[in-house]
Design a protein that fits this description.
3 helices; mainly alpha
């Protein structure tokens, strides 16, 4: 079985002695980990969108309020940096999700959903 790496994130911490269990009752639940990383990826994407929107808002305010333009420019730059950071976090979680999926497929094998179609075609070819 592949070694599991514990990742500690800002919003969710696993206890060191906590181990997730799969449906058979042993090992690690890669599907649950994949779902977890997907959720964090989506949070990162939403954070990037929100911070980017706030940066644009502050850019607009800097143009409309020349008296406080310097303050708005600084807030715009901070929001832009936050957007880049959130985008990087989403990118990181996307790769963690792919890694969890790969580990699942290595452990349990790939799931081929097209088998029904293949069996149907084979039966039809035999009948004709």
């Amino acid at each position: 079985m592949a070694e599991h790496h514990h990742h500690h994130h800002l919003f969710h911490h696993h206890k060191e002695d906590e181990q997730l269990v799969d449906a058979a009752g042993a090992g690690f639940d890669y599907r649950k980990e994949e779902k977890h990383h997907k959720h964090l990826e989506q949070l990162g994407e939403m954070g990037a969108i929100a911070a980017g929107a706030y940066a644009l808002h502050e850019k607009h305010k800097a143009k409309k309020d020349p008296e406080h333009a310097h303050k708005h420019k600084i807030e715009e730059e901070i929001a832009a940096a936050a957007a880049v950071g959130a985008g990087g976090f989403a990118f990181h979680e996307h790769h963690q999700k792919k890694e969890a999926k790969k580990e699942y497929e290595e452990t349990y094998g790939k799931k081929h959903h097209h088998l029904f179609w293949c069996e149907y075609v084979c039966v039809c070819v035999k009948l004709s």
